[in-house]
User: What shape does this take?
Amino acid sequence: MQPDLAVHPDEVVAVIDFLEASTRLSEFDVHVAGDLKGWHAPEKWIIVQTTGGSFEGKRTAISQLDLNVYAPSKPLAAKIARTAAADLRSMANYTTSDIVIIRAEPSWPADITDPINSNPRYVFDLNLWIRPN
Assistant: This one.
């Protein structure tokens, strides 16, 4: 039976699982999720959301994700974001039961701290070349 080539696995779950298993991020005791449900400032969180993407051939997708990092201070948010981006660069060949990461390219984190409430936030993009496993 041929797999359905139009259906791709959930890359958000794969990124969350990858970051939760990161030994480098474990020192920050940061929560990784797909939304902000339950977040309260100044908790440390990384939010992973899909923002778009494209297809390359029949089985390979190039997913674009947005990662937002919240922390009690700008220096800590920056350090968590840079650590997460560095870890994600090594995500190539990461495999779960339904996904294979072929290539991972994060951007450099940018400070987009909220000017109204001053909640520190850094954001970066992540392009993932993925295929079903």
About this structure: Residues 1-6 have pLDDT under 50 and may be disordered. The two ends are 15 Å apart (CA to CA). The CA atoms of residues 78 and 113 lie 11 Å apart. Residues 74-88 form the longest helix (15 residues).
